[in-house]
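Open question from group meeting: does this chain pack into something compact, or does most of it stay loose? Before anyone orders reagents, we agreed to write out a predicted structure and look at it together. Recording both the input and the output here so the notebook holds the full record.
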Amino acid sequence: MEFLFPSFLWALLALAIPIIIHLFHFRRFKTVYFTNVRFLKEVKEETSARSKLRNLLVLALRCLALAFLVLAFAQPFIPRDVEVKTGAKAVSVFVDNSFSMEALSQDVPLLEKAKQRAREIIEAYSEEDRFQLLTNDFEGRHQRMVSKEDALTFVEELDISPAVRDLNMVLTRQEQALNTDDAENKVSYLISDFQRNVSEGLSSWTDTLTEVNLVPLQSVQEKNISIDSAWFEAPVRLVNQTNPLLVRVRNWSNEDVENIRLSLNYSGQVKPVGTLSIKAGETVTDTANITILKTGFHEAELQITDYPVQFDDSYYFTFSVAEEINVLSINESAPNRFLSAAFSGASYFKLDNALSRNLDYSSFSNYELIILNDVKAVSSGLASELNQYVVNGGNVVVFPAFGANVGTYNNFLNSFPANNLGTFEQQARSVGRINTAEFVFNDVFENRGANLKLPTTQANYKLSRFASRKEEILLTYRDGSPFMTKYQAGQGNFYLCAAPLSDEYNDLIRNGEIFVPMLFKMAISSGKEARIAYTIGKDEVLEADHQISETEQVYKLRGTGDEFIPEQRIVGSKAILGVNGQVEQAGYYNLFLNEGETLAKYGFNFDRKESDLQYYSEGDLKNLVGEHINIIDATARADFGQLIGERSQGVVLWRWCLMLALLFLALEVLALRFWK
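Structure tokens returned:
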């Protein structure tokens, strides 16, 4: 047995008080004279013995009552399987309120069971201890230590949330709050279903200054199918054309599933995409074709049929279709008439021509494709601007001029890096192969086996072949040397042709079935595709074209009944917006400055981390965390609050001491009243 306040045992010295009173009980006796005391002698002796026995019994009862009263204040306890820490305590309780906690545990949702366990943990501690209640939302009011009463109030206010956090991040937040309190002992509890994808970080937790306790809750294992992600095959959407949308659907269960219906809700119509069969633990990618009939912003939603976990069965996304695709041709002198003719046939494309010695570098960001045509030398300024343009997501295609300054060209090519220009060889060559697996040519020809008229050149630059440059050859000469190559740099693409574009050396410009679709696909092949969907709970950054206003205004976002002001800063012609956890519901959100004028649309979806319903069992948790983290079995214990109390304070005995003190006082009263 140990004592929580052992210094209070000094009060046992007070036992001397009733003993002293008993020993020095001075009473004045009154002498009574009798005529004959012979008949009273026997009665006197008997009464004196009985009185002495009663006084000793009363003394013992008083001493026992006082002793047990002192022991009650010293708070004795019997330690259990963990070390009991004396002194004030700072306690942090994390309650997992993510979507997975909506699953049933027996007959109630896991969240209700978690709230019950949180209440029992808090009530097991004393009124003097301080508490933190933490959830996945990481709310500001939950970042400080509060009283026992306030902590219990926070528990009652808990509700399900789309937010999901890794548990090592939760422990870090708990530790930060606990360190703000000056209590001697720091204790944290994590009440969760311990999904595998958020619990892995617990294995690396090594801090031993805070006592960490895991309280696992188990639910019925459910099957789950989710829409994982979606993206357009082409980074740029085209109006009046079919735009393929790729959809990835995942089976999170350990059983094969069939007949999963996928549908698309677009432009007010729900269209079936197909029926999917997915093997256990695998994903499938399906294609939904979207025919876009107008420019501007569009909203769409993908849906699957799945039960009972449904928060991940919808995928909201938005996209925009520009009025036109802008192309810039940088020429040494006169514009190339074949280039102009190629783009004049498509009203959706707009070609601008500019001289290499008279350029506005600031306008480069307005173009989806820049063509360097027949330029004799690439200045350092132009080289730097084009490199930055490609890194930021632009597309550049280079047709070197006959008699070009190879040195300036190679300095320019090295910045990507791309293979260099070598000697100019005046030798006739024919293209022998088209890379139809690459995006530029992958859907151009219906019959890839048909005999196509491939380009020929009368002269070309010999390109170096450094493996480190990671080129992708689009068109190859019959002798295996590259004719048209592609390089990725940053978020954009860089294309290099081995021959000048002049029809004197290259008949590619006369080969419309290859030249025209090649230019079109290059223009829409930007590596910087505008995002079509965002994830709730992540620190997402939105981007929009900045609208210059004469009056000082702020951007606002409005969703399904909610409106808020995002964090905003202006960088050049772009407005960078941060939502900072203000989006709580999946759906569409419109950006605006003035009421009724939509500047952009964004689709938000719930985090798919919760889709994986694999949990750690109690045994798996023990293997994961080792010995430095405690695991408390809370599955079917009705005395959970008592268990926590015994773990924090041992088997408490002060109540028994207090009851015994009252019992001895009662026995003393009875002895004095009825023992005459």
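Observations to bring back to the group:
The first strand starts at residue 2 and ends at 3.
The chain has five domains: 2-79+654-674, 89-221+613-649, 234-312, 325-523, 534-605.
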